């Protein structure tokens, strides 16, 4: 069943695209500013077939994949350790609380100086950006395991490993999943923003390059591509999360 | 009946099923307040096969008493015995506990919740299935086997928790205000089911409650606790027949027992209210 | 007496973290050498000297002005839009997934479009900063308005409050803590957006200085500016967080839970 809000939202989005199309076709908006959506799609089709495109996509996506994996696995491990060792946690807490207040891209130039211009600084940047969300979510999830479930574990005389595996992790799963969701989105943001500002390849760089060369069709095609692929990926993660939630009967 | 819930009726094996002897529980000082003397010294012989309730003003240490008896908390002084053996910081085999808070696992279906303890104990699949079938049927959960707890009402979730305890065939069942979050009518019906369960398993039951009527209705004996530090003012015997249910409330002498409980507790409850000491051992979120 | 002791204790953690970070910095310097990471003391001395120079001030002012304008748009615009979306259920449901989607997309890809629309210079930076900051403010405000306990409103009606009294004495205090949490996050993201905007195709501002320093391989300046921005961000965030906690009166702000 489709909700009323979904229908209205679709109508609004389609209407906005149609309005933009009309405005561009009639010349109300100059092609030097924005090109018509149909032209964007056409340009995207051409761009997809261009020779160097595959290489850029592959580079960007592999950097995202590596950063995402490192952030999720590392963030979970660190969050888990910090949860169990109160001393470490007290030491790191102020740092974690302020972490996302820092415009981390200010440190990006430094990473370039240290790691050179390859994919490494991008991956490091995106990993650092995404990992803390995962750390915080893992700790939040483990903190909020209801005490009564831990008592229940003791009544069933579970070992520590069983208690972690059978009680703590499943109880913390919703929080950990929302951290994972953020880590995925942040990995994309970290890599593409890094490429955009300081890189010689990758999709982010290609957009900046097209802008510098007044190549609007290619620029809009690439923007469309990035927004499309990131949104698709995020939606897949969301759908997966919701499916898991619904299996628990907790769909919101 | 094809399946029995308890292997051996405990009353035939033991006379005193569990014993608290001079038990105290003192919480160490924490930020904001000094050490808190929550419980005792307190002694109690729990007779095999009896249904004993504990009532008392809020914060009197009722739940601490249960935790100590279950082996979930270690007494500061005194000893706890179950079936003749010391209980030392670990839940003994044969003891089942049901809490007030919803302790069903939201990530498991009803039948997986109920089977949880059996699977952890390595019970074979056929026997697990048989026991789960029985407990699910006994608790009226047949139509909800594949449902998840969040799809059930609070009363149904508490049934899941009781069924999960039941499959382990506990000889001593401890209930910590299990119906505290339920409405009055549901409470009465759940009480009837609890009585049926008690009769059919032959287990010993200790129920912590704040509802005087409920304690009166369900119990052979009722322990009345004083405000902190919690200890027994009296243990009231009801003399109700073993084969009883909630229609007991219609009896003329029913009100007399409740009135007696209240006469003990009125003063204590006032003390607790004015002392306004925060309850201990409660949920920290 | 106890109060001063407590405030001392609350200062202890941040001081320890600061010492830890400077130590880490020094260690990195020992490992990587001057060409990658300059030592803390000379870098901070360089920062001090730089801030004293007259040619530094226009850049600082440029970034500061861009940030303040973007912040004003994020806060005022975000709260207004959030109140509308929170007050009108259907509009909120229509808009929320779009906002969440926009929130998790790399907004830098939209920067060229903003540059084309606003031209190079201050307006584009302001627009880009506001684009980052406004979404969390809208989302938090919307949820705050949506989640106002209906019982408060019924209590207000039972006390025969006028609509204005209801708004001022019930709605504002009930929503303020959550809205403030949104503003705090909006503050950080606006700063992030403004800085990002300056790193690309900019001729003035701290971001521009950073890019120039990269071209010159001037590690000391890169680090000095990064430290300056971070210190500002962390101190401002700490102050906002303190207010946030007070507004929540001991309850954990929603924003910290995720």
UniProtKB/TrEMBL annotation, chain A:
Compartments where located: Cell membrane
KW NAD (keyword) present: no
Any single biological process term in GO: transmembrane transport
Family annotation (Pfam families): BPD_transp_1
Source species, domain of life: Bacteria
InterPro entries reported in the protein's UniProt record: MetI-like, MetI-like_sf
Lipid bilayer topology: Multi-pass membrane protein
CDD domains named among the record's database cross-references: TM_PBP2
Keywords in alphabetical order: Cell membrane, Membrane, Transmembrane, Transmembrane helix, Transport
Domain annotation ABC transmembrane type-1: ranges: 57-237
Spans through the membrane: 61-85, 97-117, 123-142, 176-199, 219-240
One Gene Ontology cellular component: plasma membrane
Keyword DNA-binding attached: no
PANTHER family: ABC TRANSPORTER PERMEASE PROTEIN MJ0413-RELATED, ALKANE SULFONATE ABC TRANSPORTER-RELATED, MEMBRANE SUBUNIT
Family: Belongs to the binding-protein-dependent transport system permease family.
Record-given protein name: ABC transporter permease
From TrEMBL, chain B:
Name of protein: ATP-binding protein
CDD domains: ABC_NrtD_SsuB_transporters
Pfam families assigned to the protein according to its UniProt record, in alphabetical order: ABC_tran (PF00005)
Gene Ontology MF annotations: ATP binding; ATP hydrolysis activity
Family: Belongs to the ABC transporter superfamily.
Domain named ABC transporter: residues: 18-252
PANTHER family recorded: ALIPHATIC SULFONATES IMPORT ATP-BINDING PROTEIN SSUB, TAURINE IMPORT ATP-BINDING PROTEIN-RELATED
Assigned keywords, A-Z: ATP-binding, Nucleotide-binding, Transport
Keyword Transport: yes
Statement: the UniProt record of this protein carries the keyword Transport: yes
From TrEMBL, chain C:
Domain of life the protein comes from: Bacteria
Keywords annotated in UniProt: Cell membrane, Membrane, Transmembrane, Transmembrane helix, Transport
GO-annotated biological processes: transmembrane transport
Cellular compartments annotated: Cell membrane
Topology of the protein relative to the lipid bilayer: Multi-pass membrane protein
Pfam entry (one): BPD_transp_1
InterPro entries reported in the protein's UniProt record: MetI-like (IPR000515), MetI-like_sf (IPR035906)
TM segment ranges: 64-86, 98-120, 126-145, 183-201, 221-243
ABC transmembrane type-1 domain ranges (all copies): 60-240
UniProt key word Cell membrane: yes
A cellular component term, taken from the record's GO annotations: plasma membrane
Chief subcellular location: membrane
Family that this chain belongs to: Belongs to the binding-protein-dependent transport system permease family.
Official protein name in the record: ABC transporter permease
